[in-house]
Amino acid sequence: MVPDTQSVHVAAGISAAMTGHDPAKRVPGRKRGLAVDVLGLVIAVVVLAANTHDNAAGILLLDQVAEHTGGTVRKVLVDRGFKNQVVAHGADLGIDVEIVQRTPQVKGFVPQPKRWRVEQTYGILILHRRLVRDDEYHPSSSASRAYWAMTHVMTRRLTGANAPTWRETQTVSA
Questions:
Q1: What is the pLDDT of residue 167?
Q2: HEC profile of the chain
Q3: In the chain, which residues have pLDDT < 70?
Q4: What is the pLDDT of residues 130-154, one digit of tens each?
Q5: What are the residues facing 29 on neighbouring strands?
Q6: Among 6, 64, 88, 117, who pairs with 44 as Cys (CB 3.0-4.6 Å)?
Q7: pTM of this structure
């Protein structure tokens, strides 16, 4: 399993009590946390204020994963944003949490082995219009949007059918 977080902007009508400001990414809004399996399928989603540390999101994701999978998850790969609190909480749940380190001599973005699955999932889900910006008032509604989008992705993978996108030209019958 691979968890990660993403900060997204919120709509203008969302209360400031339900949002925050992520200083690292300079994003006012909410933080969406995903836990995905090795195929890139979503296991758990949490939505928090953007100023929440990754540790809090990681702990909530581990709790949801332990609850939903019934203890079948044994290993979790996290990035350096998650600290020792997540590792200790994972040990309490019987899950081995490994912090994947970057190679220090390499500059810029380099995909880490198996960690790129969660980044790929974020890229696929962001193609769904309702996930570009958080328009939902309640965080639970926002989490359900991620599940809906993942259901669409899974359906497309199972059927092999692709719906036409706005980029494809529409044929007009006369």
A1: 62
A2: CEEEEEEEEECCCCCHHHCEEECCCCEEEEEEEEEECCCCCEEEEEEEECCCCHHHHHHHHHHHHHHHHCCCCCEEEECCCCCHHHHHHHHHHCCEEEECCCCCCCCCCCCCCCCHHHHHHHHHHCCCHHHCCECCCCHHHHHHHHHHHHHHHHHHHHHCCCCCCCCCCCCCCC
A3: 163-174
A4: 888 888 888 888 899 999 999 988 8
A5: 9, 20
A6: 64
A7: 0.82
